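Blinded run. Sample ID left blank on purpose so nobody reads anything into the name before looking at the predicted structure. Input follows.
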Amino acid sequence: MALQDNLVRDALLKLAQDDMPWDKTGEAVVWRRIFTVTMFKIPSMASQSWMIDGVDEFSCFGFLFSKKFLATIPHDLHLFATSRLLEDIERGFLSLGRKKATIEKLSDTDTVENMHLFLDTRLKDLGRPDNPQDRERMCEKIFAKSRGSFLWPRLVVQEFEDVW
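Blinded prediction complete.
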């Protein structure tokens, strides 16, 4: 966004100059400062579409559904969010109303093929293990421990990339 919109870039640069200890501040405060106080006040935000990935990985996702935060979102800003469907998150999305939020449920089986392809391809690229049967067993082991989360296989592969 900052590359496309000078107002966004200037606002974020100004925010970065604040004396706020970003690494010691709670996520809700960071979100409020970046979005409510800064980004949502920029006129061009109303014509944008945003994607928020992994809502369930945000430690205080309840903040996203608070009336105080929702009231600050520009009316025409389009949001697309992904998350594992936890009960609190489903209630949060439903609190937005059917006109604002649509819930599409995916099961673990919907992502199995993609996760397997990702693992197999990355392990093959890394040359680990050498033979296809061992690689398949490794894929299955990693996948079994992922419990449906795509992040787990990515982190495991990243570990393989970082070791000699």
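Unblinding after everyone has recorded impressions. DSSP finds seven helices and two strands in the chain.
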